[in-house]
Amino acid sequence: MGAALGMEPGALWVKRDDLTGLGAGGNKARKLDYLCADALDKGADVLVTGGGPQSNHVRMTAAAANHLGLDCAVVMAGPRPETSTGNVLLVEILGADLAWTGYREGMDYQQIEAAIDEAADRLEAGGRRPYRMPIGGATAVGALGYVRAAAELREQAAALFGDIGLVVTAAGSGGTHAGLAAGLGDLELVLGVDVGARSDLDTAIPAKAAEAAALAGLPAPAGAVRVDHQRVGRGYGAPTDECRRAVRLAARSEGLLLDPVYTGKALAGLVAAREQGSVGPATPTVFLHTGGLPALFAGAYATWGRDGAD
């Protein structure tokens, strides 16, 4: 894949956080390590969260709740689909108490956050002990998972190729990006590719990074935040031509399967950065594979494997 991007041998590495195992895998396992520990410490009996209609965080939170013997209530954006596909099907199989906002198709961050709070309030009024998780588990506690991951990456990089020049990741709620920046100590070492989940990433990421760093006993990261806002298309989960090309590039050059909501757009961002010259051919680059494969089986992407298909 590096050769296809015009990079020198050994310059491009992929961090396989899609292989974490919990509930079909993904980056949220690292955040849920800390979030679920906090929930148990606080005596919670039900995890409450939400996200877009192909949310990996919702899927993995439901799996974590089952593993720990907790209940799980989740809110997903938009109307309930006629046919359950991708992550929606898996959330239903996992047995979470699933509600839909009923708002327009797509992703309205503030409305979903409000719906999470409303669901938790109803449970609390009924005598339950809910633990509230925002979209993507994007709290300072959740971001600690990627502060720790940054140290892991540094150790692996030292053994394999030296210093890290850049980490590229999908930026949805911004928690993964923030944790990496906090752990690496420099906002400029992380390029987040906006997938359209929220509109305030430029301010939310550095603020969350500073908060996570403080919680971990580290100084706030230096530098300026780096977010590519040009890969969103019509919005969260909306297909784009360059995302489709990136998904096919990874599959056909490397046998690496990406998803159309997060990692496909993230790789499209790296492709654009190479074309524009902001990432050099020898820059030691880590592409963070955050998972999300179930979304590829949603109906909107059914023709993506066909040559010449939109």
Keyphrases for this structure?
310 residues, alpha/beta, Rossmann fold, 2 domains, four-stranded parallel beta sheet
Shape: globular
Which blocks of ≥5 consecutive residues have pLDDT under 50? none
Number of domains: 2
| Biggest sheet descriptor | 5 strands, parallel
Rounded radius of gyration (Å): 19 Å
By helix and strand content, what is the structural category? alpha/beta
Q: Widest sheet: strand order?
A: 1-9-6-7-8
CATH class of the largest domain: Alpha Beta
- Count all strands and give the number: 9
Give the overall pLDDT as a whole number. 95
User: Kindly, what is the distance between the CA atoms of the first and last residues, rounded to a whole number of angstroms?
Assistant: 22 Å
**CATH fold-type name of the largest domain:** Rossmann fold
CATH architecture of the largest domain: 3-Layer(aba) Sandwich
Which oligomeric form is depicted? Answer: single chain
Listing every helix as H and every strand as E from the N terminus to the C terminus, the arrangement reads EHEHEHEHEHEHEHEHHE
Q: How much of the residues is beta strand, in percent?
A: 5-15%
Q: Estimate the helix proportion, in percent.
A: 40-55%
Number of helices, counting only DSSP H or I runs of 4 residues or more: 9
